[in-house]
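ligand=flavin-adenine dinucleotide
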Amino acid sequence: MLIVGAGPTGSTLGIELGRRGVSCRVVDRLAAPVATSRSFTLHARTLELFEMAGIAGRFLEHGLRSVSMDYHFKGASEPARLDFSKLHSRYPFTLIINQNVTEQVLRDQLSTLGTSVEWGTELKSLCQGPDGQLSALLVHQPSGREEIVRPKWLVGCDGVQSTVRAQLDIPYEGDEYTGMQMRMMDVPLQGFALEDDRIHYFISKERLLLVTKLPGTNHRVLISDMEGTPATQTARSAFQYVLDEHFHGSVSLGEPEWATVFRIWKRVTPRYRQSKVFMVGDAAHCHSPAGGQGMNACIQDAFNLGWKLALVSAGEAGESLLDTYEQERRPIAQQVIEGTHALHSIIMAHGRSVEERIALSRDPGFTQQAISKISGVGYHYREALMGAPGFPRLAGLTAGDRAPDARLGPNLRLHDLLQHELYTLLVLTSNTGGTADRLVTDVTDRFGTRLRVTVLAPAHGNAARSTGAITVEGDELRRLYGAADGDVICLIRPDGYLAMRNRFTGLQPLLATLTEHLSEAS
Ligand SMILES: Cc1cc2nc3c(=O)[nH]c(=O)nc-3n(C[C@H](O)[C@H](O)[C@H](O)COP(=O)(O)OP(=O)(O)OC[C@H]3O[C@@H](n4cnc5c(N)ncnc54)[C@H](O)[C@@H]3O)c2cc1C
């Protein structure tokens, strides 16, 4: 297995493989990791996925919790607010963390799992023989040594300018956001009086100014305005000019740590897989930075593909499981492109009147929709996942949905039960006596190496006496999982999305789903 690119996508994929015992090489053409940051946001769903991999706490140690995105429209008395604090997640905030720190945490975990990034190693070319065998040319720097490798699988996590995508001659469809310019600076600010735990967007007809506190001494200052606006450069004076326009001299810039000018696109590849090669992260899609979702979507791609590749390469699932990566993640990329474009039209539609943009931000449903998409908890794979083949779906929570978290007791939540590498079978039962025990035995006998079974039962009733059943306090679990008026079984995939939810009337729906997912390995 060869992963090309050791950015957040490649490192996450390496972790997802490594923790399932699948070894891989991760190569990167850079001589060493970058010390500067592009992304500064980790959203709730990404943190939930990191929690499943056992590493969420390490990000929390290094980040600041930001509870809202505040849109300060010029002339408006109050900001329009995207408030994440009520999000139904253990992480009701955006974690502000520098991308180089995120990448370092990921690489540390990768190395704990036995894989070190091979720096100075560039993929130059890639071809596939008539027998389907891949052949890749790597060049090691500074020696210039060439190496031909023949991986069984190759994953392009090599960013917007992907060599893998170019070698496969796959187009990157879409276009650039033109007529505007983007620049940013990480810099200490004096006199900035607004809260450190919010991301502040100052929006005028001509310009967006974003200011937020970063961990450490710096703020991120990002400016977007119309192309050709004077002061397009990254010079401190050019940034100070924009700050003065908003704060009339009360906020001043210190010594910048770094500054950059960048371009933005909205693009997606028509396919994510070609035979034994995949494209993941920025190599497959990119979009407006509105809402700070780019890296998060990339990491979520890697979580989607990692467990599937691990199962298939271990011979525990058929190759068709890998087709679901594109079926599930490409529509998400398109939704991210659309969602960020809608936000972009509010915060970066330079030249459009502020009143029109305020009206857009007040559209019914805008706030909830934006919070659910930016946080990532609102994305689902309902259209791609059919549930139990041959069995009707239950209304409500269904195959493809994110398994919502629920309180089970004073020190236990449902998401705690998902912190392992396997599928999770939840049996929510109140009064089945030995039936739950028989189910556990049957399923464990047949699928035990790929599945962990948990029986969850209310404090009253026979099921609580089933072997190993967890007694659940309160009714949040039964309410969220639709088990208030009958027993339910839920199969949750290793990435925390539901594979099926059915009434607990027999084993057939479950066996049909497991067979569909896991039993086609040749
Ligand atoms: C200014 C800016 C601000 C951003 N802010 C945010 C934000 O706030 N929130 C957010 O979620 N996202 C943000 N993003 C987006 C985010 O940075 C990217 O989505 C993310 O870095 C993509 O990760 P990746 O691993 O797919 O690609 P990359 O991070 O680009 O990593 C690709 C890696 O592949 C390596 N590589 C490339 N070609 C080869 C080759 N031929 N051989 C070997 N190695 C190769 C590169 O050296 C690189 O290390 C921002 C982007 C920019 C530009």
